[in-house]
Hints:
By secondary structure, the protein is α/β, with parallel strands linked by helices. Helices cover 34% and strands 13% of the residues.
Amino acid sequence: xxxxxxxxLEQPWREVSEKYKDNLKFVKSYQPENKQVKHLxxxxxxxVGAGKSxxxxxxxxxxxxxxxxxxxxxxxxxxxxxxKYRTFKFHKNQESTxxxxxxxxxxxxxxxxxxxxxxxxxxxxxGHVKEGYKFNPEKELKEGVDxxxxxxxxxxxxxxxxxxxxxxxxxxxxxxxxxxxxxxxLAASELGIPxxxxxxxxxxxxxxxxxxxxxxxxxxxxxxxxxxxHQRLGIPMNCIFLVKNYNQEIESNDKINAAIVCVLKQxxxxxxxxxxx
Length: 277
């Protein structure tokens, strides 16, 4: 008699650990070839509590080889903790920064009068949202209003759009939430902006990953969630990544880092392709 079927694949369906050090070296040395741009701009969007700010902190932790927490997060994710449009740069040292930045944005909520307005995210894609603008769920940003950038440069515009969704909620995403994300995705597609998706909280979605983070891409359960997300949003499978953000950990962890650096490298590749156009 055989035992219960394994929840893990024999081989990972995506390899992230073998090239971790090479990928990290690439990320740290990346420079945009387009001289109009000093920093490649990556915009994170998704539902409230998806882990957008936590992902920014996790990238900072990887680059610093220690726990970091500049992007404020909130354990109670009933409403968006991020209210303002803010650019996060990552410091190599006191004099210089890495050549990519993240923009965090207020999260989507199910109700139409809560969370970031979809039209504001579309404006951000085109570089029309000024640094520090405070989002108003009840009023879309308009031209002529304080916070509207009427003359964005290529540097102001978004070069990569990243959708962030918790892996443990993929099957429970409402039609309204999916529609908001699809609307933003369509706007980005029309602008030629490349898109990536990150499924966070993988340890909450799979007990085998909670036991050992190296099982991220061996988990049958997580692979099914990636396939489900691909079907609902239309994002290609090879553009959907699994990530465990730093939360309880206070020491750098190569297993966590490898998956984060894998998606980060892909963002830089896609962004560079966009800037070449």
